[in-house]
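[Solved] Which block belongs to which protein?

Original post:
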Amino acid sequence: MTLDFFFRLFAAFACGVAIGLERQMRQRTAGLRTITLVASGACLFVTLGVLTGNGTAGVTQIAAYVVSGVGFLGGGVIMRDKGSIQGINTAATLWCAAAVGVLCGAGHFVPAVSGTVIVLVTNTVLRELSRFINTTPVDSADLIREYVFTVVCREQDEVHVRAMLANAMASGPLSFQSLSSRDLGEDGARIEVTATLQLHPKYQHMLEQIASRLSMEKGVSSVGWTGLTAEPAPE
């Protein structure tokens, strides 16, 4: 029984190292040591159920608690940075490493090795496939991007500029969100008009057309727009 225990633990350790090496080489939040510990720890918990003789029901119950615990651990590596979510793939890798450890602890070595191979293929081969898909044109992608459009004009031209912006933004496929003004300088001689809108990236040329039209106005001194991070369109 002792030899069987060491064999199960070594199998979990080896699978954890294989998965962790790939994460470590990519400098991810959870690298070699973390993933190896997750796989080995999951194996130890499940092996406890085997050693205490609680049967299949006991092992299954312990495995369920392992999944819950790894869920909290995975949440710790997920971060939000400037509107985008980072670390979801690493959290999923931790979850899979725990599953591999559970399989090793239960003595199912072939499924454990198969799971390790699948994780490695997913994080390497499918990674390159994802990059290839992301570099394709965005015309067919179901995305929405928020844009901030700014115009600086004379105080007496503010109403005219606001009306032009409102009329330009009212036509589809532009989704007009807000329109605001603020004084530039203490004398209030210059006004900055800011419009916020949402638009599919493939229609970005429409913003340039609006900017060109406004730049020809006599009282306008500058026109510009900035695109924020694109996000999937709501279903």
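(Second protein starts here: sequence line, then its structure tokens.)
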Amino acid sequence: MRIVSFEHEGQSRVGIKTNKGVIDLSTAAPHLPQDLQQLLQAGHNLSELLHPLVEQASDEDYTPLTELVYLPVVPNPPKIICIGRNYAAHAVEGGAEPPTYPEIFLRGAESLIGHAAPIVRPRCSDKLDYEGEIAAIIGKKARHVSEEDGLDYIAGYALFNDATLRDYQRKSSQWTIGKNFDGTGAFGPEFVTADELPAGMKGVQLQTRLNGEIMQNANTDDFIFPMHKLIAILSECMTLLPGDVIITGTPAGVGYVRNPPVFMKQGDIVEVEAQGLGVLKNTIQDE
């Protein structure tokens, strides 16, 4: 099942993506929660819950894909937990040994944008870098989860571009400030339920392109901490809630390590693609 968060006639909506368009739940199923986070919090098996609506939907329930204004997959997540240096080759290219424990930082919801929205290059810096990633979305409350059970708590996945201001990232020993500028966390284009994808996204190729040129091209087999381990490690510390988002790390090929460095500028087009998750596409716009 593919679920899209979008804006229509000035209101936030959620819908089921099909070949015909998006089935708007506000008309097709007004009795259901009307955003993805609330659907997850209600404890539903989304595939079982929503599949009958695809058969029952009338033409009036559809919004054409060409009319969508995409929102972040989860517009206001309880937590956005980011994992740094989770691909071994990316750790090496940055001059660090692969970590023995995840490098963890947080993003705020105000930094999020949807598919096709502009990534904003702030007026204070020209060091805006791309970071294509896979996001895991939590489906049920998790605390003290074993590695063996870790994948049971992931409802689905989406793409993410953890666009980073490299100079601000290094102003502090913590990375938070460089990762939280407004309009820099592209999240989309759609949420895909875990049952439609490889378990734990294992063996999936992830690619980032800048103006059509391949910049990052790696396989999730290079994960240092696979999905099930991340759930176990994080839930040892904190309670994971439905709608929480885990940004699982970026592979080698980021712009700042290149010679000369490559940073994104006004008008650039950046795309992130992974098997089964579509293409997340955004244009860079100066503040």
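Accepted answer:
You had them paired correctly. Confirming on the second one: The first strand starts at residue 2 and ends at 8.
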